[in-house]
Specification:
Elements (H helix, E strand, L loop, with lengths): L1 H12 L3 H13 L1 H15 L4 H4 L5 H24 L2 H20 L10 H18 L4 H8 L5 H25 L5 H24 L5 H21 L1
Helix pairs in contact: 1-2, 1-10, 2-3, 3-7, 3-9, 3-10, 5-7, 5-9, 6-11, 7-8, 7-9, 8-9
Length: 230
């Protein structure tokens, strides 16, 4: 049920799967098992959706962000293996609530999407993904505040979420943080998650630009509040 709902959100917005899945999964499975399971679902199960959206991706914007995420992912893996994930999730959740509130009540990024800014946020997202499986918020907020259409923003987010998930998975594999339980659980959740993504993609056409941005920001705030309370 949780995986299917997360898939619907991912299909509509291009992101959000990890933010919906991670809190309940962490309570049930523990953080060190949740991170590889969620990253596998986000990076591999959702990847086929890129075939429908890759032509809309702004590669000059998203590639520097994604490369920076790969470079910073080892830091997140180290933090995951050495720090209390509950503390990290709560810090991240508080940050998400602050920035989502600013955007929801009218703040918008009006300047150019500079490579240095995007790369810095990508590095932060890569570290966050490796540590908690929730790596998207910094880049999501950056792209949602930008000048692109809802279709382009969604395509950029889809590509980035897959890229940052693969970065986190690569570092976890190199650190020996995978086990068979993560693979079996991913296989169990994958069908429901993928069906949710397909259903969400069909609902996407019902959202105009303003409603899309409002929906995603309210979603982020709600899930972040749930993380804080968990």
């Amino acid at each position: 049920m949780v995986g299917t709902l997360a898939g619907v959100i991912r299909g509509i917005t291009g992101f959000g799967g990890a933010m919906v899945m991670s809190p309940p999964f962490a309570l049930l499975l523990g953080a060190k098992l949740t991170v590889p399971v969620v990253l596998l679902l986000e990076g591999l199960v959702a990847a086929p959706m890129l075939a429908r959206t890759h032509k809309l991706v702004r590669w000059n914007v998203i590639l520097p962000i994604s490369i920076a995420a790969f470079v910073a992912a080892p830091l997140g893996t180290y933090v995951l293996l050495t720090t209390d994930p509950l503390v990290l999730r709560r810090i991240i959740a508080g940050t998400v609530i602050v920035f989502a509130t600013l955007l929801l009540f009218g703040w918008r990024y009006s300047g150019p999407q500079r490579m240095a800014t995007g790369a810095s946020l990508g590095a932060l997202s890569g570290a966050m993904a490796g540590a908690t499986s929730i790596g998207g918020p910094p880049v999501i907020l950056y792209l949602l505040a930008g000048p692109d259409s809802v279709e382009t923003t969604r395509a950029n987010l889809m590509f980035f979420i897959c890229a940052v998930s693969v970065a986190g998975l690569t570092m976890l594999a190199l650190a020996g943080a995978f086990d068979l339980r993560a693979l079996w659980l991913t296989a169990a959740f994958a069908p429901g998650y993928y069906l949710g993504i397909v259903a969400g993609a069909r609902l996407f056409s019902r959202f105009d630009d303003a409603r899309f941005r409002q929906f995603t920001l309210v979603l982020m705030m709600a899930v972040a509040a749930g993380i804080l309370a968990a």
